[in-house]
Amino acid sequence: MVCGAFDIARSSYYEHRMTRSCVDVERLEQRAKVNELFTQSRSSAGSRTITVLMQENGFDVGRFKVRRLMREMNLICKQPGPHAYKQATIERPDIPNRLNREFDATAPNQAWCGDITYVWVQNRWCYLAVVLDLFSRRIVGWAFSERPDGALVVKALDMAFEQRGRPAGLLFHSDQGSQYASRVFRQRLWRYRIQQSMSRRGNCWDNAPMERLFRSYKSEWMPDAGYSSVQEAQRDISFYLMERYNWQRPHQYNDGVPPGKVEEKLNLLSGIR
């Protein structure tokens, strides 16, 4: 009677009942993988990121399918809203803004950026300094300390310089923080023959790649309550910067390819040539 009222064949009704009783194994596998990738990202990955990771793992899915699966499981990514920044135009007369927001390097080890952020550890603030290569946005050096002094940024620079094979012709860009203007840091740049560049005062857009990195770390990875010990913080930060950020996390600047894999592909192409 109902099929007749809606002008639907009885065979269609019975086929629909049979379809409902069958388990969609492929969809269950997709749901499980989406949930796994979402958990690995500490609830930070959205549908775009998970789609890239799913495709890398051999799943033939699009973004809209991933979005539906996330909605079914009530998976909501945690991403902060936009922040209003101040604008300024004051440069240091002795260290001008040589980079001038030219963030698109054409090869590795042309231009590096550096910055410091604070991390809550065991009821006190600790400080993280990072060095980033602008070519692929790869993290090439970092340091962690309880004191935000010149030694902290020197340690991060030393790590980057040694790991990258002591490159020549570098430009190092940072904000006007006292650590980067300190004598010990400027002497280290002079020793390595690195040219220095500084943002205009109070203008974070002049060092936008570093601001974006720290925003990603704090919104995606750092525990909301901070770390319980310095050792835990160092292990977790090291994994995020050198493993997840460099080799696992899809990077929008690289069209969804992690920074380490961009350079790996470049080295393979160079070897072929």
From TrEMBL:
GO terms for biological process: DNA integration. Pfam families: HTH_21, rve. GO terms for molecular function: nucleic acid binding. SUPFAM superfamilies: Ribonuclease H-like. Residues 104-266 form the Integrase catalytic domain. PROSITE patterns: INTEGRASE (PS50994). This is Putative transposase. It comes from Marinobacterium lutimaris.
